[in-house]
Amino acid sequence: MPDRRAKLDTAQHALLLAAHQLGLVAIAQGAADVALDRATGYASLRRQGGQAIIGYDAVALMVADQVTALRSVETQIAAASHQPNTYELATSLVVSRNAMPMLSTATDCAMQIHGGSGYMRDTGVEHLLRDVNSLRAIGGASDDLGLILSALLNPEASIHTSPESTQQIAG
Question: Can you tell me the distance from the alpha carbon of 32 to that of 76, in angstroms, rounded to the nearest whole number?
Fold first, then answer.
């Protein structure tokens, strides 16, 4: 009986990996965007010292950091996915390495704005932070993505995979 499973060539595999990385970033961006909405809604309602906490500089700066991260990632995704089916692996790795830490930090800001209640399941922010961090882990460690990116950009460089080289790098 013939093997009917599709065999991917290197270019198809790279295309799928690039789309996968951008997809993870897009999902994480959506979660961080929901976290921003919840944080700004909470900060507008929560009062301390006679005013809404959104009026305090520390909270306003956290919201600004969230918005900055989200708009930056939005721009990166748009630039990396300008033409369907032509995703470049190197570009998607750069976007993933840059965007995922920013989205994780932005979602963490939402937790901080909620204070102790952010850790409660009632707000849903704790779940969003867990989701963003899980997506970040699924996409691969930043150093691993960096090594793959380095190998793509400099084919003569080798990726260190032996335990000895890992120990040398770790120091």
Answer: 15
Cα separation, 92 vs 83, whole angstroms: 13
3 state SS of 47:
strand
Name the amino acid, one letter, at 102.
Answer: M
Beta bridge partners of 48: 51
pLDDT digits (tens, 9 = 90+) for 34-61: 999 999 999 999 999 999 999 999 999 9
Averaged in consecutive runs of 10 residues, what is the pLDDT profile of the chain (171 residues)? 65 84 95 96 93 95 96 93 72 93 95 84 88 95 88 72 52 46
* 71 Cβ neighbours under 8 A, 6+ residues apart: none
Q: Give residue 138's Cα distance to chain centre.
A: 10
Name residues whose C-beta falls within 8 Å of residue 127's C-beta, 6 or more positions apart in sequence. Answer: 121
75/93 Cα distance (integer angstroms): 15
